[in-house]
Design a protein that fits this description.
This protein has 4 domains: 29-40 and 350-423, conserved putative lor/sdh protein from methanococcus maripaludis s2 fold (Beta Barrel); 45-64 and 258-348, Efflux pump adaptor protein, beta barrel domain (Elongation Factor Tu (Ef-tu), domain 3, Beta Barrel); 65-87 and 224-241, no CATH class; 90-222. The strands form 3 sheets. Strands 1, 14, 15, 16, 19 and 20 form a 6-stranded mixed sheet that branches. The protein has a 6-stranded antiparallel beta barrel with strand order 2-9-12-11-10-13. A 4-stranded antiparallel sheet has the order 6-5-3-8, with no helix packed on it. The longest helix is centred in the N-terminal third of the chain and has 34 residues, at 124-157. The chain is built from 6 helices and 20 strands. It has helices at residues 2-26, 90-118, 124-157, 163-192, 196-222, 268-271; strands at residues 29-35, 39-59, 65-70, 77-78, 83-87, 225-227, 232-236, 244-245, 252-267, 279-286, 289-308, 314-325, 339-356, 360-363, 366-373, 376-381, 383-387, 391-396, 403-405, 419-423. By secondary structure, the chain is α+β, with helices and mostly antiparallel strands. A hairpin with a 5-residue loop joins β11 and β12 (314-325).
């Protein structure tokens, strides 16, 4: 009898254990869930700026080449349009003179054509022979010009001459090619019996085209005189220690007084998302409350500085200048040294889906999310977009209204498992 009781008790224990195991395998998993909806997503950073009553303008040239002369000195007051420095443009001047010589040649051809038109003794065969001689001469001139261009390109690659001399040689080749084409076309016209009057008109058109080219070159030459875009004081003049001016380096720094700007330092991690002209939100805290107004980025430094963050950690930061607009705040006065909170919007898009980062996990190298459908969890592959502070934009794989699990690290989750929980 005792043995029967023991077996009964043992059987009940086994049944209880089996039932517990079955329940644990089939019982719904407790999870946190949320419903995905379309919304405006943005990535914002906030930094503290300081009002400065002076703005710095870096003057960059629109041309480059050997430095000819510096016309100002540090500490000097300049006006708008004052010449700061001049770049050597001898090669362009020579090309202009060459084109003027070409025009004189065209003018001689016009006179010749008109004289021949008036002449009753002109013979087409003789004109054609003369033209062929001119073609041969132009061909020789073009060959010599090409040889000179090859020599210039070699010297440029060796760093002996500037790019402007190569451009001048290339322009001389084009001029000689134009003269050869013109002489060949004239030969065709003569052979076809078109007549001298047509040639006079043709050369007149070439004169006008060459004059346009000269005007373009003279406009380029004007860029070799670097002028001040603002009125102020020259506080730095790096060009004075150089013998070659490059378009990638500023030639002068001009301080403009009495123009309030806000200076703020931004981490190099975030600076790539900003550009001059971007709008920013500004807040100045006072005892009577916050004053909110707007501004726009006017300048971003090209180099970073080593500075302390708000947490006291050294990091590389880039100085950004902002021009404030206080008209929306009643024209509040901004004094030098005032603190202003600056809110940069690095990214903003409307009608986008975003999920908490905790909802994402990897499987087989792909980004995945647990989606709750019919009370069970289903592993869904998604394509991700911009990473925000606590969320990530989902480009595809989800739809508005989908319910997702926000804790992807729950080890009890698997495909098809029943889930229950509260929605956030």
């Amino acid at each position: 009898m005792k043995k029967i009781v023991k077996f009964v008790i043992l059987g009940l224990v086994v049944v209880a254990i089996a039932g517990g195991i079955y329940y644990s395998m089939t019982a719904p998993v407790q999870v946190s869930m949320t419903t995905v909806s379309a919304k405006t997503v943005e990535l914002v950073i906030a930094e503290q700026g300081v009002v400065s009553g002076e703005s710095l303008v870096l003057v960059y040239p629109f041309a480059q080449g050997p430095l000819l002369r510096v016309n100002v000195s540090e500490g000097q007051t300049v006006r708008v349009g004052d010449v700061l420095c001049e770049i050597d443009h001898e090669a362009l001047d020579l090309r202009v003179e060459e084109l003027r010589a070409v025009i004189r040649g065209y003018e001689a051809q016009v006179r010749l054509a008109l004289a021949q038109e008036r002449s009753t003794n002109a013979i087409a065969g003789e004109r054609l022979s003369l033209q062929n001689t001119l073609i041969e001469q132009n061909q020789r001139d073009l060959a010599r010009a090409r040889e000179e261009l090859e020599r210039a390109e070699t010297l440029f690659e060796l760093g002996i001459i500037p790019l402007t001399e190569v451009d001048a040689a290339r322009g001389f080749v084009e001029d000689r090619r134009s003269m050869l084409v013109a002489s060949q076309q004239e030969s065709s016209v003569i052979a076809a019996g078109r007549g001298i009057a047509g040639m006079a008109e043709y050369y007149q058109a070439l004169i006008e085209s060459t004059e346009v080219t000269i005007a373009i070159l003279q406009s380029e030459i004007a860029n070799y005189r670097v002028t001040s875009p603002v009125a102020g004081v020259v506080t730095d003049l790096p060009v004075k220690d150089s013998n070659f001016v490059r378009m990638t380096a500023h030639v002068a720094e001009i301080t403009v007084p009495e123009e309030s700007v806000i200076e703020v330092y931004v981490s190099t991690q975030d600076i790539g998302s900003l550009k001059p002209g971007d709008a920013v939100d500004l807040v100045m805290n006072r005892r009577d409350g916050e004053i909110r107004f707007s501004g726009r980025i006017s300048r971003i430094d090209s180099a970073a500085e080593l500075r302390l963050s708000a947490l006291g950690v050294e990091e590389r930061r880039v100085k950004v200048q902002i021009v404030p607009d206080t008209s929306g705040a009643g024209g509040v006065e901004l004094g030098n040294g005032f603190d202003v909170d600056v809110r940069f919007i690095l990214y903003r898009e409307d009608n986008r889906l975003a999920v908490p980062r905790t909802a994402l996990f990897k499987s087989g190298g792909a980004d995945m999310i647990w989606v709750v459908r019919g009370g069970t969890a289903e592993m869904v592959s998604v394509r991700l977009g911009m990473e925000l502070r606590t969320e990530t934009v989902v480009e595809s794989g989800l739809s508005a209204g989908d319910v997702i699990v926000t804790d992807a690290n729950n080890t009890a989750l698997r495909n098809g498992v029943s889930v229950v929980g509260n929605r956030e």
